[in-house]
Amino acid sequence: MDTRIEINPKVCHGKPVIKGTRVLVSNILGALGAGDSVEEILEDYPNIKREDIKAALTFGSQLAQFEELPYEATVL
Hints:
By secondary structure, the chain is mostly helical. Helices cover about 40% and strands about 5% of the residues. The chain has a two-stranded antiparallel ribbon with strand order 1-2. The protein is globular and about 40 Å long. The termini are far apart. The model has no long low-confidence stretch (mean pLDDT about 90).
């Protein structure tokens, strides 16, 4: 796992965050998915850096590669 991402049960209920912040990785990924630019995200979260956004993307990509996901998938 990237050193920019932290999972600590005492921070945001153990959800992945940008280390040293309470910015959830899921919020960054959600913003990107909604069409926000990197610049917009950096404006919304001034305590993170461009490299943190890249780390969040990498984390999401790695998570998607698990053979078993923690929820039941539905085939459409």
